[in-house]
Amino acid sequence: MSWTGLVEAVLDLRVTTTAATFVFVAVTAAGLTTLAIRRQQRWLLAGLATVVAAAAVSVALAAVLVEKVWRPFPDPLPVTVYVWSGLAVLAVALIIGRWFVRRRERSRPLVATGLVAAATAVVLCAAGGINAVFDAYPTVRATLGIDDYRTVPFDAALAPRPGSGGRAPMGGWVPPDDMPRTGAVTKAAVPGSVSRFSAREARIYLPPAYFTDPRPDLPVLVLLAGQPGSTDDWLVGGRLTGIMDAYAAEHRGLAPIVVLADGTGSRLANPLCVDSHLGNAATYLTVDVPQWVRAHLQVDPDPRAWAVGGLSYGGTCSLQLATTRPDVYPTFLDMSGQAEPTLGDRSTTLRDAFGGDAEAFARNNPADLLARNHYPDSAGAFVVGLGDREYRAGLERLAAAARAAGMDVHVTELPGGHSFAVWSAGLEKELPWLGHRLGLDA
Predict the structure, then answer these.
(1) Residue 262: which of 305, 292, 239 has the closest Cα?
(2) Which domain holds residue 77?
(3) pTM for the model
(4) Mind listing the pLDDT tens digit for each residue in 67-114?
(5) Which of 25, 294, 323, 339 has a Cα-to-Cα distance from 382 of 20 to 30 A?
(6) Dihedrals φ, ψ of 139, to 5°?
(7) How many independent structural domains does the chain possess?
C-alpha cells in the first residue's frame, strides 16, 4: 500500500463502532491506572481518595447545572455521557493531585511526560466514547474536519437558467455523457427577509443531474438538524452526500436537491420551530427558505415536489411544519422527533415560549393539530431506533394520530438509539419512498 493509500485508510477508520469503544475503554483503564498507582503511602491513603471524590463531585455539580439550571437541551443527556466526562475529569484531577503530592516528579521529564500522555489519552478516549454515543463523527476524517465530498462555489452557474419554463419530464430525461459521477455541496446565506430570523449559512446538496445542460427541474428536501446542531451535521454524521450520490447513481443522476437550512439560529438555541420572541423560525422555514430556493436554484416549484425532514428537534420541526403548513410541505420525514415541541416540560414550554397561552401552544403542537384537522393530501415517514426509549413511544403515538387525520404515513424502526447511526440509515432506507413521492420515478 502506498503512503497516500495508508493515509486514506487511516482517515476512513470508523471510531464509533463497538470495537472502537472497547479500545477507548481499554486505553482509559490503562491511563487511569498509570496515573493512580504509586507506592507512596500518603498518596494511596489520602491523595487518591481526595482526587476521586473531587472528580465525582465536580461531575455531579456539572450535571445539576446542565440539567436543572442551564438546561440547554430539551431532554436529559445519557448517563453514559456523564460517565465518560467523569473519567476525563478524573484523569485531569489525578495528574494535578500528583503534581502536589509527588513534587519530585516535576523535575523528572520522562515521568512528567508519561503522566501528561496518560491523561491526554484518557481525555481523548472519553471524547471518543461520548462521540460513539451519538455517532456524530463516524470516522477519523470526520473527527478532524476533513471533507470527503465535492464542493462548488455558489455563483451564477447554479442559478435557474432562462427559459427553463415548467418542469422537465423526468421519465424521458437522458443524462448527457459529461454528467459528473457525484453531486456537490455548496453553501449560501439564506436571509430571513420576511421573518427577520437570524440564520446561519445553509448547506445545499446538488445532485449530478443539476450539473447538466439541459437541466431538469428537481424536487427539494429541506433537511433540518437537531438541537444542539448545525447545518453541517447531516454532511458529517448523517453521511448525506454518500447516501444521495448512491441514490442518484441508480436514478440517472436524479435526486432531490437537499437544502440543509438552519432551524435554530445557533448551536444551542431552541426556538421550538414556531414564531415567538425566541425567533420566527416557522416563518423562516415556510416563507423565506422556499422563496429563496425558488429564486436562486432551478427547482420544481410545485409544493407536491417539496418535502421537509429532520432528526430529533429537526424531526419535531418537520412534523410541526407539515401540520401547520401542509400547503408548503405536504411531505415530511420525522426521524426520532419529540412527542411535542418542548423546552424540557410542558409548563416550562408554555411559560417561556408561549407566555402561558395554552391555545397558542396547541396551534403549534402536532398532536393537537392532528386531532383537530384532516390532511388527505399529506404523507410522511416516521423513523426511530428500537433502543430509543426517550422518543419511540411518542413517535408511534404521533404516527397513529397522523393516520387517523388522513395522512398516508408509515413507521420505520431500525436498530440503535438516538444517534446518527439510526438517522443516516433512516434517510437511506426512506429515500426510495421519498423519491417516488416527489416525482423522481415519473
Answers:
(1) 292
(2) 17-134
(3) 0.91
(4) 888 888 877 889 999 999 999 999 998 888 777 665 555 556 666 788
(5) 294
(6) -130, 170
(7) 2
